[in-house]
Request: fold
Amino acid sequence: MRGAVGVMAIIVKEGKEMGGAELIGKEEREAVSEVMDRGVLARYGFNEKRKNIFRVLEFEAEFCRYAGCSYALGVASGSAALRVALAALDIQRGDEVITQSFTFVATIEAILEAGGVPIITEVDKSLNMDPRDLEAKITDKTRAVIPVHMLGVPARMDEIMAVARKKNIPVLEDSCQACGSSYHGKKTGTIGSMGT
Reply:
């Protein structure tokens, strides 16, 4: 996605741009400048100042079209997305949430912040959740499963979804490292109950 609603951040380290920066051109820089010049970074409100231009709402609608989903909610980070999703799933203190051993720390932090207990599965050769180990880790306290699509590679969602459906457990896909990747023609993050 390019343009005013396809804004990405530039990360500079030791004078070199990090991965993804090659996708950022004049159009993206102008879009960021437009938002910054208006001085309204909030999702809602300040209608007069923003001249009724709602870039986050535009981004959410464009992202829905891109991903083939019905709803999207723009948040500040993948960490925030995971925390909001766990709140939407009503994870309570002591609820077990299963995720995988190879992931970014934010996945575990979000579970802990929700009051949940992280239960860790092994990974397969793709570095994603091993569906067989997932099934072995489910208990009567399991309230959600979070497969993490690592390094742009989708997890084995058919098998993970089959295990979750059998136990009636919602699946929250952490697609923060794989946004835009697909699994059998569906974008990652749109296969489970919800995705980040």
Notes: The helical segments are 26-38, 47-50, 55-67, 78-88, 105-113, 131-137, 157-167. The chain is about 35% helix and 15% strand. Residues 1-15 have pLDDT under 50 and may be disordered.
